[in-house]
Amino acid sequence: MSSVTQVPATLDDLYRVKGKAELINGRIVRSMPTGFRPGRVGAGIFRSLDDYAEATGRGVALPDNVGFAVPELSSGRQSFSPDAAYYLGPLPSNPMRFLDGPPTFAVEVRSENDYGDAADAEMAAKRADYFEAGTAVVWDVDPIHEIVRKYPKDSPDRPAVFVRGQEADAEPVVPDWRIAVDQIFA
C-alpha cells in the first residue's frame, strides 16, 4: 500500500491563485464571490476609510481581495483577505505583492452563506486569528440585520454593537473616523 504525501501550499502558491483565497494549514482556501449587497457594503466602508486616510495622511485603506501575509498562526493560517481594511504598517517593497503583517483594522462583511451557528463559529475563529496576528479591531458587518459589531483585541468577547441611527467607529486605531450605520446600509 502506498501513501501520497501532499506538499503544503505556500504563499508563492497563493500568489498564483486567481480570485479571492487565503492560506490556512498549508491549504489554499478559496472564497466565493460576494453578492451585490455585501459587495456594496464593503465598498462603502472602504471609500469612507480611504477618504479618512487621504485627509489625514495616516495609514492606507484597502478594498476587498487585498492579501495580508502573516507568520503561521496557531490555527495554521498564513494570510488574510478582508472585505475592507486599514493598515498602518510598512508598505511592501514590491507593491505587486501582499502586505507583510496583519491589517490594523479588518472588516468582514457577511455574505449569504455566513449565517447560522457554524458560520458564527467560523467568524469567531477568524477573529481570533486576526487578534493573534496583531489586528487591533475587527468589524463583523451583518447586511441582513443591518448591524455592525466592533470587536477590539483587548476585549474580544464584548463587542460594541452599532445599529441604524448611530455612527460606527474603529477606535482607537482609526482615531476620529466615524461612519453612519445608515450610510453603510444605504
Biggest β-sheet: strands ordered side by side in the sheet: 3-6-8-9-10-11
**SSE order, as H and E?**
HEEHEEEEEEHEEEEEH
The number of domains: 1
Classify the helix fraction into a percent range: 25-40%
Low-confidence stretches: none
Question: What structural category arises from helix and sheet content?
Answer: alpha+beta
Based on CA inertia axes, which overall geometry fits? globular
- How many E-type strands? 13
Question: What distance separates the N and C termini?
Answer: 60 Å
In the CATH scheme, what's the topology name?
A: tt1808, chain A
What fraction of the residues are assigned to beta strands by DSSP?
A: 25-35%
Give the averaged pLDDT, no decimals: 94
Give the CATH superfamily: tt1808, chain A
The main β sheet shows up as: 6 strands, mixed
Number of helices: 4
| Radius of gyration, CA atoms, in whole angstroms | 17 Å
Give the second-level CATH assignment, the architecture: Alpha-Beta Complex
CATH C-level: Alpha Beta
Q: Can you describe what's shown?
A:
By secondary structure, the chain is of the alpha+beta class. The protein has one domain: Alpha-Beta Complex (tt1808, chain A), CATH 3.90.1570. A six-stranded mixed β-sheet has the order 3-6-8-9-10-11, sandwiched between helices. Strands 5-4-7 form a three-stranded mixed β-sheet, with no helix packed on it. A hairpin with a 7-residue loop joins strand 10 and strand 11. It is globular. The termini are far apart. The model has no long low-confidence stretch (mean pLDDT 94).
